[in-house]
Design brief:
seven-stranded mixed β-sheet; alpha/beta; 194 residues; Maf protein
Amino acid sequence: MAAPPRFVLASASPRRAALLAQVGITPDAIVAADLDETSREAELPRDYARRMATEKAIAIAASHADAIVLAADTVVACGRRILPKAEANAQVVNCLKLLSGRRHRVFTAISIIGPGAEPRIKIVMTHIAFKRLSADEISHYVASGEGLGKAGGYAIQGLAECFVRQINGSYSNVVGLPLLETVSLLSSAGYRTN
């Protein structure tokens, strides 16, 4: 009987690895793709997430042809606007001010490429409504450092969870990897998930 294909997670996100571990999946390797992640002019959030996840999966699959490669990209969108992955406190402040008292969407595109196969892609969307945030709440959150490096300037799995007035859809999607859809895609690609 042939050995099952290796599983490579094409992501540097510790949250994605932790989510997979939560459902008993451990990648054989974790290799992040080094790509330009600049959005194109007038590119919609869903399209951007799909493109990024697919490009990441293809880039890593090129050097891991014998493996099942999983890549994902999470985008926080307010209307048609793609919010940045906050790299500075000022970006966290700007994101939180924009999201305060409003609804927004979180898209995660998952792209899986198995040996000799075309990419399988799934996009999951979650709707979130934030309460109106005071200047003190924003300052406290910024001081925590939790929003740095996060899409939209916040991490729902931390202090920002108390900002959420309503969530409609997958919670794990907002963390960075929708588990129901990920496990289903992995299974369809031939990876044994249990």
